[in-house]
Amino acid sequence: MKSWARRHGWDEAPSIRKLEDCLETRLMVLICKEKKTGADYTEPGRAAPPGREPR
Q: Alpha-carbon distance 13 to 38, whole Å?
């Protein structure tokens, strides 16, 4: 992994590029998942406010 990071300049990539890569990966995982739940559509690590279910 470290050699890939060096070769492709991952550490030097602008923040927007890192965000785009992250979103692309998240979307691909979601698309490939056969059975989706409401939790699949929420931000990872983000909880719903008390008394309210995530959408």
A: 32
